[in-house]
Design brief:
With about 80 residues, this protein is mostly helical. The chain has one domain. The chain has helices at about 5-50, 55-75. It is rod-shaped, with a radius of gyration of 32 Å.
Length: about 80
């Protein structure tokens, strides 16, 4: 096999190795991003739960204030 063929094979191998290494780095970065996004999603759900709208909370507030209302009506 001529020397040019060996050089071509060596360069091709180096290019493929570099591409594979780059793809592996991308995979690891994407895994880290996925974990971070999972944490962000959980945080957003917690914030959404803690800042839910008033109509969801009003019945429980009214139930807690019923004894106060009953006392005020008896006066």
């Amino acid at each position: 096999m001529p020397a040019a063929a060996w050089v071509t094979l060596a360069i091709t191998t180096l290019i493929i190795f570099a591409a594979a290494l780059g793809l592996l780095r991308v995979i690891f970065h994407l895994k880290a991003i996925r974990q971070t996004l999972g944490t962000v999603i959980v945080g957003v759900q917690v914030v959404a739960h803690q800042t839910r709208t008033v109509p969801e909370v009003v019945p429980s507030v009214n139930a807690n204030l019923k004894p106060v209302r009953d006392f005020c009506e008896s006066i």
